[in-house]
Specification:
The complex is a heterodimer.
Chain A lengths: L6 E12 L2 E13 L4 E6 L5 H9 L6 E11 L5 E3 L8 H10 E4 L13 H12 L4 H14 L5 H4 L9 H12 L6 E5 L7 H18 L2 E6 L2 H7 L2 E6 L2 E7 H6 L4 H8 L42 H4 L4 E3 L5 E3 L6
Helix pairs in contact in A: 3-4, 3-6, 4-6, 6-7
Chain B lengths: L1 H27 L5 H11 L6 H11 L5 H15 L4 E2 L4 E2 H36 L4 H15 L2 H15 L19 H38 L2 H8 L4 H7 L1 H5 L1 H16 L2 H6 L5 H10 L3 H29 L1 H4 L2
Antiparallel strand pairs in B: 1-2
The chains are: A alpha/beta, B mainly alpha.
């Protein structure tokens, strides 16, 4: 693990054993995050992006098995935790969750406990990871709500989730995730369930807090527009593979992988030429029980090379400026 | 909150009035009355009563008066003097018959209810958090067995085994020596030694059903995103399970705890008959068979009061435990 990285995922493989067969949900994912960096993970449903994030918390579904790879996290005191080597319930993992890594979720409607007040839920995190007195916890919780720009924080503490709007709940969720000053924030599609105006506000909030607290953020989304707005680096996932990882400008202006290019072409643009049909990616996402041989994208790839792509799994190719792609086009 | 309770209490008054009228009418609906049943009983033993004597008895009991008059006399007696009338069958005041038994009934039923929860909730939670584990499958099998075996059959088997292998005095709540003795510590010990059979019998069926419900509720709650949030806060599994989903999963139980009160009185008649328990169930059954209308009416009146109190109690409990109800 390099000195300056805070999180490193290496060759991560996760599979589900099901009655119908084995699903390889994550196949050799690699990425790393530096302190204060925003990594966007983009991919369609079932591409393994959420699962990769869950592995950082060591909170995979119980029927999931990690078959290979490592996830390492560096705490602010320099200690490196080999997350997948830890037991799910170990003390180190419980300190990590909520203490060093905060997480916010997609569904603000259901991701907060319906039977506890907002204040109570924030104070639960505080009491787990800090020595604050009850009174200090209340003050800290109110400060946090003020930090996420909720009006009348002292009153908000007593509110229950069902009394708040979606945007307000997501703010409370963010306050909870940030309550113990985590050095890494995992955001799993935090704005997908919100309307566009609220989405913009929440994104602004996350970015200003990221700047203020100088924490690293992993932002999972299927929306390229969101990624363009907030990410420093982007990892594009397809069928459990991180097919390309690069700085955000390189992803948009110099994509190396045909899937990235195809995705970019299928984004509707306001300034684009009219009367042109939006480009789509040919074909369907393959059946997860029968993944294609060779490169998983070859069944839909416009630049497929017969023979090579259908039989050999492409190696990761490194380019300048830390750009990486898994594609035969770039291999000698 | 106080306003809410007062509002609910006020509403229970008309409810009670309607229930008492309805029960009084329904008890009298079948053809004939107590005297008919009485005569039929006498005929079986060979005695014959002529129409004149029958009319005389009817007049004595007030059965020849119009129904509304009978009702008003009866309800007036209860409201003004606390007098529930005379049991025609037992020739005893109804209150004497009822209150004697209600104490023991409450004791047995409360203990079984408590037992049911103590068994069902932890097992239900365990089964859900360790779904498809060996113990989950075992509890599922036991649960269905417990649900499937009729209570009275279990009671019979227990009585038989107790008699055969342990030489217990089975049936009833007291040994013959204490049956009519005044209350003493020895009598209390004797009661405890008899009590476990009905409590066990009455709680198995309930617990078996309840644990299936608890398991299903928990499975649903455990899959909800707020559980994952709780894990992501750094809580341990035990803290997550008991602080969050269990609280939500208990809601359906809380909303039905009120029904337990009336079920205490009317429920498990068959088991009570088999075990020869001096509870209210068998008495109510008999009073209905004999059209002993004041006794039956008294029972049903108390049942309705319990139902109303029970529902009110569970509604208040729900308001206290679930903020979503409190604020809507």
């Amino acid at each position: 693990m390099q000195d300056e990285t805070i999180l490193e995922i290496k060759d991560l493989n996760i599979c589900f054993e099901m009655r119908e067969g084995t699903v390889n949900a994550v196949n050799g994912v690699n990425f790393s995050v530096k302190p204060g960096e925003v990594l966007g993970i983009v991919g369609e449903s079932g591409s393994g992006k959420s699962l990769s994030a869950r592995s950082i918390m060591n909170l995979l579904p119980r029927n999931a098995t990690v078959t290979n790879g490592s996830v390492k996290f560096r705490k602010t005191d320099g200690e490196v935790i080999d997350i997948l080597a830890e037991k799910r319930e170990s003390r180190k993992m419980r300190e990590l969750r909520g203490g060093h890594v905060g997480m916010i979720f997609q569904e603000p409607m259901t991701a907060l406990s319906p039977v506890h007040s907002i204040g109570k839920q924030i104070m639960t995190t505080l009491s787990l990871h800090t020595d604050l007195s009850k009174k200090a916890q209340v003050e800290r919780a109110a400060d946090l709500l003020a930090m996420v720009q909720m009006p009348k924080p002292m009153e908000m503490l007593k509110k229950y989730p069902h009394q708040l709007s979606g945007g307000m709940r997501q703010r409370a969720m963010i306050a909870m995730a940030l309550s113990c000053n985590p050095s890494l924030l995992l955001a799993d599609e935090p704005t997908t369930a919100l309307d566009v105006t609220t989405e913009a506000q929440i994104l602004d909030l996350i970015m200003s807090l990221q700047d203020e607290l100088n924490m690293a953020v992993i932002f999972i989304t299927h929306n390229f527009g969101v990624v363009a707005e907030i990410a420093d680096r982007v990892s594009v996932m397809y069928l459990g593979n991180a097919v390309e990882t690069a700085a955000v400008d390189d992803i948009f202006y110099n994509p190396k992988h045909p899937y990235t290019r195809a995705l970019l072409q299928s984004i509707p643009r306001l300034d684009g030429q009219k009367r042109h049909r939006l480009q789509t990616i040919e074909g369907m996402v393959p059946d997860p029980f029968n993944l294609p041989t060779g490169c998983v994208f070859h069944t839909r790839c416009a630049e497929k090379m017969a023979g090579k792509c259908t039989s050999q799994i492409p190696e990761l190719t490194h380019f300048e400026n830390d750009q990486m792609a898994r594609c035969h086009l770039h291999q000698a | 909150m106080a306003g809410y309770i007062a509002h609910r209490l006020l509403w229970s008054i008309p409810t009670l009035i309607v229930i008492t009228i309805a029960t009084f009418v329904i008890i009298q609906l079948p053809p004939g009355d107590y005297v008919t049943a009485y005569i039929a009983e006498l005929v079986e033993t060979g005695e014959v009563i002529d129409a004149e004597t029958a009319a005389h008895i009817r007049h004595e009991f007030g059965l020849d008066r119009p129904m509304y008059e009978q009702f008003l006399t009866w309800i007036g007696g209860i409201l003004l003097h606390g007098d529930f009338g005379l049991s025609l069958d037992w020739k005893l005041p109804v209150s004497e018959l009822i209150w004697d038994r209600i104490g023991l009934t409450l004791l047995i039923s409360m203990l079984s209810l408590l037992m049911t929860w103590v068994i069902a909730i932890p097992i239900g939670v365990y089964s859900a958090t360790r779904q498809y584990s060996f113990l989950d499958h075992l509890f599922t099998v036991l649960g269905f067995l417990g649900r499937g075996i009729p209570d009275f059959l279990l009671a019979l088997v227990l009585m038989w085994m107790g008699f055969l292998y342990f030489n217990f005095h089975v049936g009833g709540l007291f040994s013959p020596a204490y049956e009519n003795a005044p209350w003493s510590f020895a009598k209390f010990i004797d009661l405890l030694s008899h009590l476990w059979v009905p409590v066990l019998v009455l709680s198995t069926g309930g617990a078996a059903g309840l644990l299936r419900i608890m398991r299903a509720n928990m499975l649903e709650e455990l899959g909800k995103p707020y559980v994952e949030t709780a894990y992501a806060q750094g809580l341990s599994e035990r803290q997550v399970v008991w602080r969050y989903p269990v609280r939500v999963a208990l809601n359906p139980f809380i909303s039905t705890v009120g029904w337990a009160l009336p079920a205490l009185i009317s429920g498990d008649v068959i088991t009570a008959v088999v075990l020869n328990l001096p509870t209210t169930g068998p008495l109510l059954l008999r009073s209905l068979q004999n059209q002993d209308m004041y006794l039956a009416g008294g029972f049903i009146l108390i049942l309705s009061v319990f139902t109303i109190i029970g529902t009110l109690l569970s509604d208040i409990l729900l308001v206290l435990t679930d903020p979503r109800i409190r604020h809507s």
